[in-house]
UniProtKB/TrEMBL annotation, chain A:
Designated name of the protein: Xanthine dehydrogenase family protein molybdopterin-binding subunit
Organism in which the protein naturally occurs: Streptantibioticus ferralitis
Transmembrane segments: none
Domain Aldehyde oxidase/xanthine dehydrogenase a/b hammerhead positions: 22-126
SUPFAM superfamilies from the UniProt entry: CO dehydrogenase molybdoprotein N-domain-like, Molybdenum cofactor-binding domain
PANTHER family attached to this UniProt entry: ALDEHYDE OXIDASE 1-RELATED (PTHR11908:SF132), XANTHINE DEHYDROGENASE (PTHR11908)
Domain of life of the native organism: Bacteria
SMART domains: Ald_Xan_dh_C
Record Pfam families: Ald_Xan_dh_C (PF01315), MoCoBD_1 (PF02738), MoCoBD_2 (PF20256)
Keywords for the protein's UniProt record, in alphabetical order: Molybdenum, Oxidoreductase
UniProtKB/TrEMBL annotation, chain B:
Family annotation (PANTHER family): OXIDOREDUCTASE WITH IRON-SULFUR SUBUNIT (PTHR44379), XANTHINE DEHYDROGENASE IRON-SULFUR-BINDING SUBUNIT XDHC-RELATED (PTHR44379:SF8)
CDD domains per UniProt: fer2
Species whose genome carries this gene: Streptantibioticus ferralitis
Upper taxonomic lineage: Bacteria, Bacillati, Actinomycetota, Actinomycetes, Kitasatosporales
Keywords for the protein's UniProt record, in alphabetical order: 2Fe-2S, Iron, Iron-sulfur, Metal-binding, Oxidoreductase
Protein name: (2Fe-2S)-binding protein
TrEMBL record, chain C:
Pfam families named among the record's database cross-references: CO_deh_flav_C, FAD_binding_5
Species of origin: Streptantibioticus ferralitis
Lineage, highest ranks first: Bacteria, Bacillati, Actinomycetota, Actinomycetes, Kitasatosporales
Gene3D superfamilies assigned: 3.30.465.10, CO dehydrogenase flavoprotein, C-terminal domain, Uridine Diphospho-n-acetylenolpyruvylglucosamine Reductase, domain 2
UniProt-listed InterPro entries: CO_DH_flav_C, CO_DH_flav_C_dom_sf, Diverse_Substr_Oxidored, FAD-bd_PCMH, FAD-bd_PCMH-like_sf, FAD-bd_PCMH_sub1, FAD-bd_PCMH_sub2, Mopterin_DH_FAD-bd
Protein name: Xanthine dehydrogenase family protein subunit M
Keywords: Oxidoreductase
Amino acid sequence: MTTTRPLLGSPMTRLEGREKVTGTARYAVDYPVDRVAYAWPVPAAVARGEITAVDATAALADPAVLAVLSYENAPRLHDTDDRTLAVLQSPHIAHRGQFAALAVATSLEAARGAAAAIRVAYAPEPHDVILTRDHPGLYKPDEVDEGMPTDREHGDFDTVYARAQVRLDAVYETPPLHNHPLEPHAATAMWDGDDLTVYDSNQGATAVQHVLAELFGLATGKIHVINEHVGGGFGSKGTARPHVVLAAMAARVVRRPVKLALPRNQLAAVTGHRSPTIQRIRIGADTEGHVQALAHEVTTQISALDGFVEPAAVVSRVMYAAPNSRTTHRVTRLDVPTPSWMRAPGECPGMFALESAMDELAIACGVDPIELRVRNEPTVEPDSGLPFSSRHLVECLREGTRRFGWHDRDPRIAGKHEGRLLIGSGVAASTYPVYVMASHAEAHAGPDGSYEVHVSASDIGTGARTVLTQIAADALGVPLDRVRVRVGSSDLPPASVAGASSGTASWGWPVHKACTELRQRLEALGHSVPEQGLTVAADIAEDLDDREDYARHAFGAQFAEVQVDTVTGETRVRRLLGVFAAGRILNPRTARSQFIGGMTMGLGMALLEGSTMDPAFGDYAERDLASYHVPACADVPEIDVHWIEEEDPQLNPMGSKGIGEIGIVGTAAAIANAVHHATGVRIRALPIHPAVLMPPLAGARQASPS
Amino acid sequence: MRLTFTVNGRQQEADDVWEGESLLYVLRERMGLPGSKNACEQGECGSCTVRLDGVPVCACLVAAGQVQDREVVTVEGLADYARQRAEGGCGTGACGTSLDDAKRWQSKPADGRTGEAGAFPQQLSAIQRAFIDAGAVQCGFCTPGLLVAADELLERNASPSDEDIREALSGNLCRCTGYEKILDAVRLAAARTEEAV
Amino acid sequence: MREFGYQRVFDVPGAVALLGTDPEARFLGGGTNLVDLMKAGVERPALLVDVTELPLGRIEATADGGLRIGATVTNSDLAADPQVRRHYPALAQAVLAGASGQLRNMATIGGNLLQRTRCGYFADLTKPCNKRVPGSGCPAIEGEHHNHAILGASEHCVAVHPSDMGVALTAFDAVVSYETADGPGELPLAEFYLPVGDTPHLETALPSGALITGITLPPNPVAAVSRYRKVRERASYAFAIGSIAAALDVRDGLVREVRLAFGAVASRPWRAREAERLLTGGPASAEAFAAAADAELAAAETLPHNAYKVTLMRNLVVAVLTELTEEATR
């Protein structure tokens, strides 16, 4: 390396920071566009049924209104795998809030007014929207996620569990959760002949380009998707969402550019969310807490339009040595909004259940919860039998123990008071797999000594643009200011989605590869750059195929201290500590924010967030930010984050694991475990609202004279 | 109506404005100042925070008619506003940020060049610099509203306590950062301003 | 949003006269609730009469030692006022506990009194709601109601009033002044909000076309030792799931005077008169506080998901009165 300071691992400040603090960073509906029109969707007002009539007369009476679209007159789309994108194609309504019509007008207020004036008549059909453990529609899906088996069985769970000295059998529930990125799903769509340009808020321009090409029956090269800046996604923008299809459709019909930003209160129904889960965990152990049998059985739901099956039991195939185990997923199809990805899908709800259960087991066995986890540390990945490429969970637990002051903790339950506050602390482990997806990149050397690197990456706030610049400069062996990385457009070399904590690896790898080869070719040329410059393209598909078989995961440990007000049932987190082992940390500044942001969302999951399915209407009762509470400034205490330096040669050329999601995994369990330590009340269904904690606390107060 | 009001220190006019459209819409769609963000449209998230006659408000809940003859400062004008405040006000009436200037700030694709070179003719305000330096920016969507609110806090209270900061920023939701770096940024801006005095 | 007219007014008679010209006109204060409801289509005024420039923006001491608060005083200014903070601390605390800085900067106290419930069914035009469409039904009773009323509700409506400020004002016997085309009038806050009964759409006793001009707080020495405690799911910036405004005068262990009002339990700020009656003259003890709370809450009617509020309010009464007792005897 020719630079004096290592570029990988340096806390470089965010490259687009200036644009973002001056208000000049352009998001999906921020671009100046001539003759723009505005679209406003009409959500269906029944949970299931047929549209029998669409009366747009009143709406179209306003001269500012350009069009009203519904299944009756909307352009036909080609089929894709994702049925949520077949917008306005059929009179059938699969769930409340699905788009029934769309108003397009020359001003936003005219569009909003027109949408309100459209009369849609329905023939409602009976609906079924409530998930239960014994729902008659439960079935075993073919797989839970690509390549993830639905069920796994090792040894003889039933027999060993039945004979175990210590048995735990508990049911944990996580509610529907909504991503709610601050930027709502939004797009500006413009047609030029058969060429479509969309500024779209998404986590993957290449993926959106491909699906739009399919839907409109056009060659991929005709579609240009630009996502230069994206106001968060957390999974909900991981694939094309219906808003971008509507915007493109409307622009085609009115022959003008169209802006469509979904109103916040429509997001819950149409942009995806985390499904509710009901998880039964049974653990059979000896009195020292060695797990002999573990069953993790998940019940969850999808919609009539399919959707993502939350693979919550998969964590129990990874975390602890259990010679006899059973992990299963059952799903039922309900007339509900279609679930999708939300930060750490599977791991996040799964670890709430598993890590709560481990806490209960520790108490049942009288073993310290950290020691319990250490005792059940596996030597290979329990399900696959593969060696771990690296696993430093125990080191994370030990380091956290020291930093948090865990040894000072009095293990007695409900033993610490400060006036009317009860104080407690809890711990939970974190885990998230290491994913890499095939992507392409190009590196170009200019005759003036500058370098351009192109990759259709998406910077949704993670700092991708910044870290890719570090990776490129490092591989090229040049200072950062000689390298310009371009991301955020499907016109760049195709790349994978900003999801599954895979972005840095999936994009950084081809960037590294292209830059390394470019550097070698320049060296071969004696460092004289040809007049037209020199370009190298890279693709990592083969590199991925050539990888050896390892179980690759990041791990961590989270510690929480809470106070519970015995008068009001209010729980507040006083301290959070996360210690993670996630490979090499490429940019400590942006990485720290990713961990803390994830833990904060985990705090929200523990104490605040959760939607209620309305049985009569089939929608979520909490549809805006006034009723769906994401953490505000005052909810978030001192959060401390550390990481274990991990050298793992089995990952990628940078040695990194993904860090975008692991922060949310385990937080809710750590907090719920702390609430139990503080109060003796075990909450197995999130969130821990005062309404939930008040009755058992009141019972405890009456039982014990204070 | 013909709407006349002051935006970032310069008088602006817009014709055929319906009094009922929101100030946020006027700024974003008529003035070409999309820095103020629309994230909830109901005053819940603070992403559209601007100063109206000096006071932070949610632009999504202000009707255009209400801003007639009044003064608005948006994130695009924050740097100028802070500079003039430091210099003791605008004597000539020719201060402020013109719409053209604000639009010229329009980002080039962010590149790998670090340091002061770049698209900005202006010095950033203390709070803007602190947000970058402290790493308080992630996706950036809540950032403009937070900057306006935080700048007003520091104007009122040069050395706010953590409680003051949390209270002042309680109306600005962020889904990315966990707020820690945002608090750091406000503390940093306060400390730097104190040093400079 | 329906197209509507907008006009600023600068004097009270002009405001009242202008409103009288159009039965579908509405006064616009800070707009933090009204504009939101207009976007949702719940409110559809033909004309907005902007009253924020009216000369009603002052807080003044009255001759008898009370306070007169103009209707267009913003929540921020009310909470910051030194007289309010000194003489009615629970009022300042209540206002600061509501909403966010941005919203408090916009919201006016007149508007605050008239804000509508945040019941999700009320704001959703696709669903029935007796408050919005009389006779259409109340889905909250069978549906989402974890933050709905336990006192004074009816089978027609179980929504709660969202105001924090109103709870403190109720405890302190505030009187609302208004102006109509026929002249000025006054309504004690205790009579300002109508019982729910079978007319949940009729919320206040304010005469049609009346403009709230201000609120008068009578002199109230007991209010100087007062407290507002708000319980909410989020640590800040959330509506109450239960709140209490309390003032207490204790001498020699006996309650000389007590004021108690509850928030987030009824369609209006709930003055706990039964509890006050039981407490006055009796011992200032936790047992007495609990007994008084139980008496007040004996009338509570709960639904499956809001029964926790009974315990919550009982706990709050005991805790806050105990704190005030300690404060008074320090």
